[in-house]
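note to self — DONT lose this again. spent like an hour looking for the file last time. sequence + predicted structure for the chain T wanted, 435 res
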Amino acid sequence: MRLSQHFGHSSRQVHEVPETHGAYALLRAGYAAWESGGGRWALWPLGERLAQRVFAAWQRALASAGSIVAPGGEADFWRLAGLWGAPARPRLPRPWARWLALQVMSYRHLPRTLASQGASAWWALRLAAEAEPAPWMAMEDFWRAIGLGEVMRLAAAEDTQVWAWPHPQGEAEALTCACGYAALQPWATRAKAPAPPEEPQALRAVSTPGANTIRTLAAQLGIPPSRTAKAVFLTDEAHGALIFAVVRGDMEVSLPKVQIALGTGPLRPATEAEIRAVGAEPGYASPIGVQGARVVVDTLIPRSPNLVAGANRPDTHFVGVNYGRDFQAEVVADIVAAQPGDPCPRCGRALSRQSVLPLAQGAALRPDEQVAFRTPEGKTAPVFWSPLRVDPWHVLVALAAVHRDAQGLRWPVSLAPYLVHLVALRGGEEAAEAL
């Protein structure tokens, strides 16, 4: 390949990303380009060669897991499965389920590990749940093979795991603890100490003029924010349903956790008109007396007696609010968004924030009734399946950040797009052409 004849030339100036970002080195060296119109990255020939070397290691990991290539395009699979970038529970897409139902009819056909045609995805099929799907363990070999030794495993939605590389310009935030706990921030949990037990007080309304925020309400009544109930109104964009999320006043609501708890699609803040339509008053709202809204409360609310909550009329709050007696929820779940400095759910020490670049994502094995097999006893049982996907661009960005110095990219032999770069010195063109 002649360097003078390929697309993608090196650049002295790169403005799309900071100099410390891995993508900076790829852009400057002519490995990639930013498609501003399409809002995505594109690989030039050198970048494609690098990707081929990287995913040769990925294919070796696939082969070691005994995988077979599944039909169809992987982009369609991940769009239908709902794993990548979405909090919804992954599901086996119907076209793949129909195909698998014809291939997996007996316990003798399991276990199996399938690979996508694009070579950046796996999904495992098993007889029953395992502590850890086999492809997950092969991931560690893959990271070592390409020289990424600091990859973190982070908890995410429910039993989903994310592999991420720590970097100051990472596209996501994680909360970590010295004890080993680590999770993507939207899914991170925190220790929650319940309030001391109290006898339920009588529910009564009090005047709170202008107290339409937790801070002003707590200051006006002389109580800590933890003695209040915070109401957050959301709208399910897919179905238009109004959602009433309640957490303690000293905490914040995690929208992805609310989505999982109620099984909704994307959420947006509700408008004042939507809030009033169910009988609530913006700034002074509570679930008490509300009709037509889906109510979800954090696990700490039932353990927090005699809270202060909105009375659903201007400048008025209720005191002595108790869950179960005064209102109930459709779902009680952890919907709190953990913050840096919150106590770790494992050891109680303060959580720290860390920027990370997500590299891969997988979900634990779960049954799927669409594909059934015959057990040794002749009974019918659902196949357990687990998806796993790698983000090729993020992997290249992480590698470029690791394998570089002040002069630019310095690839190891196993990753270099070409093993030899022949440079013709002045007067040696004929000898170079002969080679």
